[in-house]
Design goal:
20 helices, 21 strands, alpha+beta
């Protein structure tokens, strides 16, 4: 296996060259078929598969009169079953997949004594484990090993009695280079009744790109990008970008920047833009001025569960177009490409700062008072400004973590205060009252505010590469609604709940307002959770346990304590709101309501229409309640 040698320290230097993908330009387009990417030119046909039932197409999803067909579902086949495909059958898939089928070892296998052991590679894997580039460049590795089963962690290689096994990693992977490869893999998984998963980067909190006994479709190599100077349809006229589903945020940003444009994608450096991110809604540094990522989609090209390659837009498969803009990834089909709106670039000012408890706060620790009242006074004032700031287009990304040197202290870090179209003076004015309050209580807060000529330069300067790969943490999140700022009583109750939870843990949060007006969409135009349209704060907290624990009974108890304790405290002060699907508590109660709200009944109906056999499954997805993969989600997938 190939192991990435890129370190986190050198990552931003690396993306300067890595972002230089081949980018084409087209003057005008009115539909997706006017712009054909190289990956879309090679497709599977009926003639191709005539003599190969293993990869033949499935039945039409509807009868001629529009009636949705019903099918009998059964448990998925796993490697120990007699029905598991023979090597000869896998060779057929390999042929139709352009010899892009592989059977990878787990990424940590090089650390376990056996044929794959390699001390130098093990040292590299161990050193780079928390860096996302290591995992995104491996065929099956994911960034949330807890949800894979922790069966091949590098740190366990030297522990007596520990052996590396696949656990939840896929058995086989198709490294798709075109639509034909994806079609062949979907057909093979459906016809052989094998669990199917989809991976671009594996950047996910819940292990959606893994699955016991599965075949994986890896879309990471679908990197074509075309800048469309004028996309003209019934609903939109303006610049657009068509890109392969393997494109990541930093690649999209670089291509847009080179054309004098900007596009809505994530803040995370290596997050895959063209997969679960955009299908699940997708919040962005531009969300307070342009809405959610899903609001920008003009068309998809998709491989359906029956293997057919289709256009999905407002005029073709319009119900699926609605569902795939907010309904979640790995659910309705496999994306090959996406067309999204693009916007003229604009200058951005960012501000960064940190602050700690005041000397007065710290002086009280000896007497057992660790309330840090001055520290939280500053935070409360800053929080009070969220509606005002978000309405001015601000997207702030900040965290509160235990102080690295002083027990009982916490540190607030702004990473960054991101202000599209604002000057240094305007940003400093927005922060002035917070600085004033900090000074009044003896808290040192000194913003560093810098203007950049365009979005891409500001994004590169402002957002750090996130650390991933932990297996001893569980996070949960909540969207806090704007109306909680309408009265002092509601705001105080909400703030007290946040303070109570975070004082004993940590916080990663965003001040953001992806309203319908910002996204230029109507309430029922897509499947994005309605609560997003009324939020001004997306907050994440979590819990942890001893890094040496491998007993899932203990881990599940820790997770349940988070769900029933801190997360319930937050739910109680935000009734009727919801949770961002991509950054949720794995055990969120009433998850259909929490993740999709009023959109869920229609989404569930469309799931059965477009995937009647359950070809596409992830644990936290529309229709996931119809299946079960064992007590720890790591066993055979069966219908319930």
């Amino acid at each position: 296996m190939k192991i990435s040698q890129v370190s986190a320290l050198g990552f931003f230097a690396a993306i300067t060259s890595a972002a230089a993908l081949p980018v084409e330009t087209q003057e005008v387009a009115t539909r997706s078929s006017d712009v054909v990417l190289s990956a879309e030119k090679i497709v599977l046909t009926d003639a191709d598969v005539h003599d190969y039932p293993e990869v033949s197409f499935g039945e039409e999803l509807e009868d001629n009169d529009g009636t949705v067909r019903s099918y009998k579902r059964s448990c998925k086949v796993i490697p120990s079953d007699r029905e598991w495909p023979s090597k000869a059958k896998w060779s057929i898939l390999n042929f139709f997949a352009g010899k892009q089928l592989e059977k990878p070892d787990p990424i940590g296998d090089v650390c376990f004594h056996g044929p794959a052991y390699n001390a130098a590679k093990c040292a590299n894997v161990t050193a780079e484990w928390s860096h996302s580039d290591l995992h995104m460049n491996h065929p099956t590795s994911i960034m949330s090993p807890l949800n894979q089963g922790m069966t091949c962690l590098p740190v366990d290689g030297s522990v007596a009695g520990h052996k590396c096994s696949l656990g939840g990693y896929p058995v086989y992977v198709v490294n798709a280079r075109n639509a034909k490869h994806i079609q062949a893999a979907v057909n093979f998984a459906r016809n052989m009744n094998i669990r199917l998963v989809v991976k671009n980067t594996g950047h996910d909190f819940h292990g959606k790109a893994s699955g016991f006994g599965s075949l994986s479709i890896r879309t990471h190599y679908l990197k074509d990008i075309v800048i469309i100077k004028k996309y003209q349809s019934k609903r939109y006229t303006g610049p657009a970008i068509k890109a392969g589903s393997g494109v990541q945020g930093f690649e999209l940003y670089a291509a847009a920047h080179a054309a004098g444009l900007m596009a809505v994608a994530g803040e995370g450096v290596t997050v895959g833009w063209g997969g679960g991110y955009i299908q699940g809604g997708g919040h962005s540094p531009l969300s307070s001025i342009h809405g959610m990522a899903a609001d920008q989609v003009l068309a998809y090209e998709v491989v359906l569960s029956n293997g057919r390659f289709v256009t999905v837009d407002p005029d073709t498969n319009s119900d699926l177009f609605w569902a795939m803009r907010g309904g979640g990834g790995g659910t309705f089909g496999v994306l090959v490409s996406i067309i999204v709106k693009a916007f003229p670039d604009k200058p951005v000012t960012i501000s960064t700062f940190t602050f700690d408890p005041s000397p007065k706060d710290i002086s009280k620790y000896a007497a057992g008072n660790t309330a840090n009242d001055d520290f939280w006074t500053v935070i409360k004032h800053y929080f009070s400004l969220f509606p005002k700031h978000a309405d001015k287009g601000i997207y702030s990304y900040f965290k509160i973590f235990p102080n690295a040197t002083t027990p009982s202290a916490q540190t607030f870090t702004m990473l960054p205060f991101f202000a599209p179209g604002k000057t240094v003076a305007e940003v400093n004015a927005l922060l002035a009252s917070t600085v004033k309050v900090a000074k009044s209580v003896g808290v040192s807060l000194k913003p560093k505010t810098v203007a950049y000529p365009g979005f891409y330069e500001a994004w590169k300067a402002g957002f750090p590469q996130e650390s991933i790969g932990l297996w001893n943490v569980q996070s949960g999140s909540r969207l806090f609604p704007r109306h909680n700022w309408d009265s002092t009583a509601k705001f105080d109750a909400q703030f007290d709940a946040i303070r109570e939870v975070v004082s004993a843990a940590s916080l990663i949060a965003f001040n953001i307002a992806p309203t319908l007006a910002a996204g230029k969409v109507t309430a029922n135009e897509n499947a994005v959770l309605p609560a997003w349209r009324n939020t001004v704060m997306h907050a994440i907290t979590g819990t942890g346990w001893n890094i040496n624990i491998r007993d899932y009974n203990i881990i599940r108890a820790k997770q349940k304590a988070l769900t029933d304790g801190p997360m319930q405290r937050w739910r109680d002060v935000s009734p009727g709101s919801g949770v961002y699907l991509a950054e949720c508590d794995y055990n969120e109660p009433n998850r259909q309501e929490a993740f999709w709200g009023s959109k869920y009944p229609r989404l569930y109906k469309l799931k059965h229409k477009y995937d009647p056999l359950g070809v596409f499954f992830t644990e936290i997805a529309v229709g996931s309640e119809d299946w079960r993969a064992g007590n720890d989600h790591l066993g055979r997938l069966c219908p319930v």
